[in-house]
Amino acid sequence: MKRFLMLILGSAIAITVAGAAMAQSSDPASGKSDAQATDKAKETTPPSATPPPDAGTTPVTPPPASATVNERAAAKSNPAIERVKERGLKVSTKERADIDKKLDEIERQIENEATSKGDAAVAGRIAGEFSMTADALTAERNQFSRGWGEILVAHTLFANAKSDVTFADILQMRNQGMGWAVIAHGLGLRLGEVVGAVKTEGRVAMGLAKGDGKPATIHASTGANAKAGAKVNAGKTSTSAGTGIGVGVDIDKAAKGTK
Which whole-number Å values give the CA distances from 200 to 31, 74, 115, 135, 227, in the listed order? Predict the structure, then answer.
């Protein structure tokens, strides 16, 4: 009996030890299997997709930097130009057309002279009238991409203007589509003398007259009284300035009427 009990007890101990050994040997494998299963689950799980934008929503695209800069530049208006424009637009349509037509003809003839005799010849004649060198005047013409006629008209008006408008401002106004009559009146100059002054400088540019080293004079407009007096007693230069300069008329012949 005693031997039988010892046998049973020994068997129980053996079974317990064997069970513990089996449990220890299966734990690492189980842990490894679990880890592999977790990694596999991570690999097979698809990433969450970004929801598509609402079809009814308009995407907002930021403006390019250059556009922003241009908008800011446009927003900053030039007070000097605005004052000239405001005053100049008071000139009647008929007077604008008449003066602009005559100045355009003078410009055309100066351009023809430059084509015939060369830019250097015309530049040299014009430059001396405005205390400039031919090279400086040529560089200015290239900078603003203007013809010799426009450069001459702009300098004639600029030399007589008593305002804070710069030479570049005058050409900027031309870029904005403003005619010479509007610009001249806006600068406070007597319109009755503008064509005569430009014609005088045009004769120098074309080699028809010798320059005197100074721009032709255009007096300032002093108001309604000055305008009324200009129509009656403006003098030979101003009175004849409005006549004889039209399409196809030689500038030299027209200039003789001013003497």
Answer: 107, 37, 20, 22, 22
pLDDT in tens, 175-198: 999 999 999 999 999 999 999 999
What was the pLDDT predicted at 12?
62
Cα 144 from chain centroid? 13
Residues contacting residue 83 through CB under 8 Å, at least 6 positions apart: 163, 186
CA distances in angstroms from 37 to 26, 29, 40, 146, 205, listed in the order given? 16, 12, 5, 81, 96
* Rg, Å, the chain Cα set: 46
How far apart are the C-alpha atoms of 52 and 7, rounded to whole Å? Answer: 76
The token pair at 99 is 């003066």
> Which is more confident, 103 or 26?
103
* 3-state SS class at 220: strand
What pLDDT was estimated at residue 162?
Answer: 87
Distance between CA atoms of residues 237 and 86, nearest Å: 28
